[in-house]
Amino acid sequence: MGTIDDRLDALGIELPPPLAPPPGVVLPFAMVRVVGDRAIVSGHGPQALDGSIGGALGRVPDEVSVEQAYESARLTGLSILGDLQRTLGDLDRITAWGRVFGMVWSAPDFHAQPSVINGFSDLILDVFGHEVGAHARSAVGLASLPFRIPVEIECEVALRR
Amino acid sequence: MGTIDDRLDALGIELPPPLAPPPGVVLPFAMVRVVGDRAIVSGHGPQALDGSIGGALGRVPDEVSVEQAYESARLTGLSILGDLQRTLGDLDRITAWGRVFGMVWSAPDFHAQPSVINGFSDLILDVFGHEVGAHARSAVGLASLPFRIPVEIECEVALRR
Amino acid sequence: MGTIDDRLDALGIELPPPLAPPPGVVLPFAMVRVVGDRAIVSGHGPQALDGSIGGALGRVPDEVSVEQAYESARLTGLSILGDLQRTLGDLDRITAWGRVFGMVWSAPDFHAQPSVINGFSDLILDVFGHEVGAHARSAVGLASLPFRIPVEIECEVALRR
After folding, report:
1. CATH number reported for the structural domain that contains residue A150 in this entry
2. Which chain B residue has the Cα nearest residue C119?
3. Which of the residues C38, C74, C122, C138 would you substitute to probe the B interface, choosing the one with the greatest number of B C-beta atoms within 10 Å?
4. How far is it, in rounded angstroms, from Cα B31 to Cα A123?
5. Chain A: nearest CA to C10, how far in angstroms?
6. Has residue C48 been placed in a domain?
7. Which of A145, B104, C17, C82 has the maximum number of C-beta atoms within 10 A of its C-beta?
8. Helices and strands in chain A: count of H runs, count of E runs
9. Cβ C159 vs Cβ C38: under 8 Å
10. Could you list the residue range(s) of the whole structural domain that residue B38 is in?
11. Does residue A58 lie within any of the structural domains?
12. Mapping DSSP to helix (H, G, I), strand (E, B) and coil, where does residue C118 land?
């Protein structure tokens, strides 16, 4: 077992299985696409441990609170780590986190998207540390997201050659 | 003629000419920017074969139906392939599709963005096949898009050195 | 002093200091993340020369006009150049601008996002010229942005090895 697996164990973190999409939904793309020494990660949402879409559903902050959305951003991070682990075989192949694009389904008068996406950033820094885990980030308000998820995140990591 | 050109011919696909922007609009950037072995593609919208903005205009689903928006995503793909062909000289230089970011001008209660952007993904997989054409993707709801287009897509491909 | 510093001087441009975030806001990420020969730039907003968030605040065009938002996009460019200069040591290390993603906090019936983000593109072309400064771009309408800023931009540049 690698260093990051040990770290996940120490933190008591379990990663979810592949996404079970809602009935009738076709997603004809890769959840992670490796191109050269980069792994490009598709937009992910919060997942429950049974593989289904997880956490509170709805717009922030009128249907889902900032605290709930923070937890959704963390669950989105776990979903991404699960897909990265399955695609890469080993999370220790990640040498650096790069771009993180955090999208929050937002009411027009909601402006605390950074506090929501911190649920993702805090997880990544906790698991990978501040050298590998450091990342560039945006956290912005979308008009709507698929399946009524409150948070969607896409990102990119660099890989050991 | 290359393999992809043959494939376009076999599918009866014609690519549009460069975008003719609406009167008075200045777009001071490259539709495709090649940096090293990557081609970074600017946000594109649906184009008609005369080069103008094409397809139904308006918000999804109140002004433009999901079926119409699926077709707009396909037209957006053709617009992107036209610009890639002109910039690269030959679409066979593309070795892998990478990131695809699909934006749908969405009513707040619309959540089927993936079904819309499938119009793009289905085209790319049909033309490039599942090895080269596989891509990472997000499909999300924007508050508004330029020129009232229902779909805008930006993406990136890897090139033969 | 390098070529780009000279150019900034000739244009009378002063770059702002690091962002002073609003009280209580934690931003646990890098404003610029260098990965290999790429500098990935986090979402930036308009900054005043004292380091605080600058320019008019609000939604475009009902609270902030297109002209004000164009100026905000320019101020966002200056904020990005400031962070790039501090991270890279020297803006002459930039060999090519790549992806630019321009986000405008937009009313649902506002569709002139390209005219707003031109404030950024015009600055970059003016400072870096049309060979290095050329970029791929999207300019789209977001439902809301952090701190009520009218414009947020993330981007990427290629670096001399």
Report:
1. 3.30.1330.40
2. B28
3. C138
4. 36
5. 31
6. yes
7. B104
8. 3, 5
9. yes
10. 3-155
11. yes
12. helix
The total of structural domains in chain C comes to 1
The distance in angstroms from the start CA to the end CA of chain A is 19
- Structure confidence by residue, pLDDT tens digits, C64-119: 999 999 999 999 999 999 999 999 999 999 999 999 999 999 999 999 999 999 99
CB proximity A63 to B under 8 Å:
no
What amino acid is encoded at C8 in this protein?
Answer: L
Does the residue B121 lie in any domain? yes
Distance from CA of C76 to the nearest CA of B (A): 17
**How many whole angstroms separate alpha carbon A154 and alpha carbon A142?**
14
* pLDDT per residue as tens digits for the range A36-87: 999 999 999 999 999 999 999 999 999 999 999 999 999 999 999 999 999 9
What does the pLDDT read at residue A1? Answer: 61
Q: Is the pLDDT of residue C51 over 70?
A: yes
pLDDT score at A161: 79
Residue B65 reports pLDDT greater than 90: yes
Per-residue model confidence (pLDDT) at position B32: 98
Amino acid at B115: S
The whole-angstrom distance between residue C124's C-alpha and the CA centroid of its chain comes to 9
Radius of gyration of chain C (CA): 15
Rounded-to-integer distance, Cα B136 and Cα B122, Å: 13
Does the CB of A66 have a partner CB in chain C at under 8 Å? no
- Nearest C-alpha in C relative to B43: C138
Please say whether the beta carbons of C114 and B146 come within 8 A: yes
In a domain, C77, yes or no: yes
Spatial separation of the C-alpha atoms in residues C101 and A16, rounded to whole Å: 31
